Amino acid sequence: MDPVRNPFAPGAGQRPPELAGRDRELAAFDVVLERVARGRPERSLVLTGLRGVGKTVLLGELRSMAVKRGWGAGKIEARPDAELRRPLSAALHRAIRDLAVRHRDPERVETVLGVLKAFALRANPDGTKLRERWQPGIDVPAAQGRADSGDIEIDLVELFTDVAELAQDVGTGVALLIDEMQDVQPDDISALCAACHELSQSGAPLVVVGAGLPHLPALLSASKSYSERLFRYVLIGQLDREDADHAVLAPVAREGAEISPLALDALFDASSGYPYFVQAYAKAAWDAAPADPITPEDVAMAAPEAEAELAVGFFGSRYERATPAEREYLRAMADLTAGRDEAVGTTDVAVYLGKKPSSLSPARDNLIKKGLVYSAERGRIAFTVPHFGRFLLGREE
């Protein structure tokens, strides 16, 4: 098979050739856009799931839907070592520029940009010298007395209100999309929840769409108890057999090629329906096939190559971030679950390693912060990456 025509291209956040199995989520967001634009109340949205299920891809698709409807839309990726104010300023600047194309009052747009600039400039620590101050690249004077108090919760409410009212002027809304939302710092998470709560009560046309790991709802709830009612939570999981087959069949057919039913069986067994793995194994199978159609023998021949690539780029890069003590904890989890994608008791890990649970808390907490594991429920821990336990058991130390 011609590798140049290979339709599969696994990559972080890269849209697959066929976005299969997400029709329900896309349709639900379309309803949200329409309801908010009509001034009807609607909750913000939080997507949760393991690594490799396509949350980032889905966020990008939702952003495209908002833009096509004339909304202002901005997207950011949260980082555990960075405050939200600076990236949020850049995202909302993008959203305001989207709205400015449709707005008939340039002065009104500049007023809101002035508020945004005032908000952004508070990202500079007090006492920063003028020549060292970060500038947000907004070519209007900063407003005074609006969104510039330095209290992120107060400032965010005021900023969201002004940006939402700008969108309301042109009969649309604003979508703020936040990837890796579990990495937003606690004070910023609290402020974000408070701002969403304030806007939901007023019916302002601004929607936050967050995406993060499975423990994100617990983080939001710990920040603000009402967050359980503030957001609509959508679990993004692996594809069922029909959707996984469609994710392979449709791109192959568009290239005028075929794949046998038995090869589809083999691909599903290897990938377990996880979208990133579907792409990885399908790409390798296409390249390994000497001729059309792709057969189960081609999939078997390609599997080691796909797994080697995953071991380096998908699993290995994450494993390398762990310290020796953390790797010991990870290996114990893999042994106790026999490599299955299951949660394990933290006490069981301690018993297995012959250590006190309290002595393992630092390793566990650091693994959570690094996004390698998450607390599936009280007293239990699980990998954030599908098949990670299997990777660890097959790894030569």
From TrEMBL:
<dbReference type="InterPro" id="IPR009056">
    <property type="entry name" value="Cyt_c-like_dom"/>
</dbReference>
<dbReference type="InterPro" id="IPR036388">
    <property type="entry name" value="WH-like_DNA-bd_sf"/>
</dbReference>
<keyword id="KW-0349">Heme</keyword>
<protein>
    <recommendedName>
        <fullName>Cytochrome c domain-containing protein</fullName>
    </recommendedName>
</protein>
<feature type="region of interest" description="Disordered">
    <location>
        <begin position="1"/>
        <end position="20"/>
    </location>
</feature>
<feature type="domain" description="Cytochrome c">
    <location>
        <begin position="168"/>
        <end position="357"/>
    </location>
</feature>
<dbReference type="InterPro" id="IPR041664">
    <property type="entry name" value="AAA_16"/>
</dbReference>
<dbReference type="Pfam" id="PF13191">
    <property type="entry name" value="AAA_16"/>
</dbReference>
<dbReference type="GO" id="GO:0009055">
    <property type="term" value="F:electron transfer activity"/>
</dbReference>
<keyword id="KW-0408">Iron</keyword>
<keyword id="KW-0479">Metal-binding</keyword>
<dbReference type="GO" id="GO:0020037">
    <property type="term" value="F:heme binding"/>
</dbReference>
<dbReference type="GO" id="GO:0046872">
    <property type="term" value="F:metal ion binding"/>
</dbReference>
<dbReference type="InterPro" id="IPR027417">
    <property type="entry name" value="P-loop_NTPase"/>
</dbReference>
